Amino acid sequence: MKKSVCFGLGGSRFAKRMSERAPMVDGCVFCDIARRTPTSTTSLLYADDKVVAFRDINPSAFRHYLIIPIEHISTVKSLQRTEDDYQLVSHMVKVGKDLLNRDAPNSEEHRFGFHQPPFNSVDHLHLHCLALPFVPRPDVPIADFWH
Ligand SMILES: [Zn+2]
Ligand SMILES: [Zn+2]
């Protein structure tokens, strides 16, 4: 069976198009987390039938969570102007806000953002949710992070 490429910059154009939207993609780390495959050790902060939330493995702030759809959608560009997709994105933001309000109610600022292609770290749509202050990370300038 052909293995789909999930990491944005590595794949051929064809593989990328093939994996833009699918129930799940083999070898995608976020699909593994969303489907709770036995090899995935990530603990979920939240889960329902549409989205799951978990901690970023490389936190950039006091609290840094990721919200992902369970369906494999590669980037914001793969979203459609449909009521379903609009609901999905609003739901992701709401879940993120609720978690930060619960876990970092006194934070100076909450920030939410999607990557814009081609600046994807993982080729599965994810909403970054940060409660400031930022954690200094010499390897990743903040300005680059917020593309
Ligand atoms: Zn995926
Ligand atoms: Zn990211």
TrEMBL record:
Keywords: Hydrolase, Nucleotide-binding. Residues 29-142 form the HIT domain. The keyword Nucleotide-binding applies. The keyword Cell inner membrane does not apply. InterPro entries: Histidine_triad_HIT (IPR001310), HIT-like (IPR011146), HIT-like_sf (IPR036265). A motif (Histidine triad motif) lies at residues 124-128. The active site is at H128 (tele-amp-histidine intermediate). GO terms for molecular function: adenylylsulfatase activity; nucleotide binding. It comes from the Eukaryota. This is HIT domain-containing protein. It comes from Eleusine coracana subsp. coracana.
